[in-house]
Every structure is written in structure tokens, then in C-alpha cells.
Amino acid sequence: MSIEYNELLAMLMETRPEFATELYNCTQGPDLPAYDSIAVSRRTITLPRQPNRLRVCVAAAYAKDGERLLALLFDAVLEPDPAQAESWLQFMTDAQRALSCMVAFVVLCRDAKTARWALAYSEVGDIGCYVLPVVIPSLLASA
Description:
The protein is of the alpha/beta class. It has five helices and five strands. A five-stranded mixed sheet has the order 1-2-3-4-5, with helices on both faces. It is globular and about 40 Å long.
């Protein structure tokens, strides 16, 4: 998956951080905690098996009174890609380590088949993170 969709998401969220909240509200995840700020950033990694391929996702960190409460990570997926899904765990553990808060990963999917595939990654072990697939056909329809 090329990184252009995630770069576009980053630009939209940097311009209007509440866009992250709107996308999250399309999921069936728990309610967001009360917050007073959202900090948007881009996170990048390379996987050991693909050292020449850069992975990018968007992070929206929610805080109240200066304390980080939750970080939402976003990734756009056009079709099932096990290598891309493998990166989610690394993104989540890196974000949790760096931000010291709960992390949720929102996977924006082009169709229901891809969302069902992403749902298989909804539990990622004992690290206090989870994956929430959501179908966004209007966002990715022409991809």
C-alpha cells in the first residue's frame, strides 16, 4: 500500500484535528475519554523483513490538562495485506512506549471484505491496545 492515503489523512488531521474524532466515531470502539486537546503527528517505521519499505500512519493523541489519555493510530487499507497488518503491532507498541497511554488502531478499509480481514487483528495481546476496522467507501472509493 502506498503511503499517499496516510499522508492525506495526516494533512487533513493536522488542519482539523477533530477529523480524527469523527473517523473514530465511525467505529464500534468505546467512547473517547473527556479531553481538551488533540496532538496530531506522523509515525514511521520499517519492518525487518522489508527494510526498504517505509510504513507511515497518523497518530492523534488525546489529552486532558496536559495528561495523555489515549492515542488513536490510523491506517488506510485498500485490500488485505499481511505485511501491512504486521506493522500495526509495531506501530502500537512504539506509540504506547513513546506516549505512555492506551492505544487504539483505526483501520480505514475500502470494503467489507477488507474490514473483516482487519478484524482478525482486533486483539493484539496483553499490551492494552486494540484494532478497530471501519469501512469508509466514500474516502477510498476511487482508489
